[in-house]
Specification:
- This protein is of the alpha+beta class and 175 residues long.
- It has a single domain, classed as Transferase(Phosphotransferase) domain 1 (Transferase(Phosphotransferase), domain 1).
- Helix content is 24%, strand content 33%.
- The chain is built from four helices and eleven strands; from the N terminus they run ββββαβββααββββα.
- The chain has a six-stranded antiparallel sheet, with helices on one face. It has a three-stranded antiparallel sheet with strand order 7-9-10.
- The two termini are 32 Å apart.
Length: 175
């Protein structure tokens, strides 16, 4: 059984949830509680430049909280080992819903409110639908990545292209 520790606290890894630009996210468990354990990686990314990823996670978390974006709570951060633990939001991603022909239309008002809040705070978040989970009817942004606002990367100009079975979504599935 694979285990990873964060600041000396050991977590049992259950399974890989996904790999992003900045790290691997695992479903992990400790004392009967499921959490997400993220391990930062330093693999190259053609379309994105990083500075200090673990510091960015911490700073972006604070920026998202200040902007009032619904996100999972950060429970612990281990700067030395470049790991963090956050609340696990159990539910389907918008990506899974769209892929399985389940309409995400009901969640558009919530994501548009997130877009409004983000823009008001001078931020863009990663609008790709793998970063959004629905739990008990509420939409959560489960990543902590955010950048300075640019209209080109707003939800309405970029993100919405992946929130239904658009040509862009279908092309992504072919990758």
């Amino acid at each position: 059984m694979d285990k990873k520790s964060v600041n000396g606290i050991e977590y049992r890894i259950i399974r890989l949830l996904g790999k992003g630009k900045g790290g691997y996210s695992y479903l992990a468990e400790r004392e009967g509680r499921q959490v997400v354990l993220k391990q930062i990686h330093h693999e190259p990314c053609d379309y994105y430049t990083f500075g200090n990823k673990i510091e960015a996670e911490k700073n972006d978390y604070r920026r998202l909280l200040d902007a009032k974006i619904r996100i999972p709570k950060m429970l612990d951060i281990d700067t030395e080992n470049e790991r963090l633990v956050k609340e696990y939001i159990d539910g389907d991603t918008i990506f899974e819903m769209v892929k399985n022909d389940v309409s995400a239309k009901a969640y558009l008002p919530q994501v548009r409110e997130m877009a409004r809040l983000a823009k008001s705070a001078g931020l863009n978040i990663d609008w790709f639908p793998t970063n959004f989970v629905v739990q008990n009817g509420l939409l959560y942004y489960i990543d902590y990545e955010c950048n300075g606002y640019m209209d080109e990367w707003s939800f309405e100009n970029w993100g919405i292209k992946y929130w239904s079975k658009t040509p862009e979504f279908k092309k992504y599935l072919e990758l």
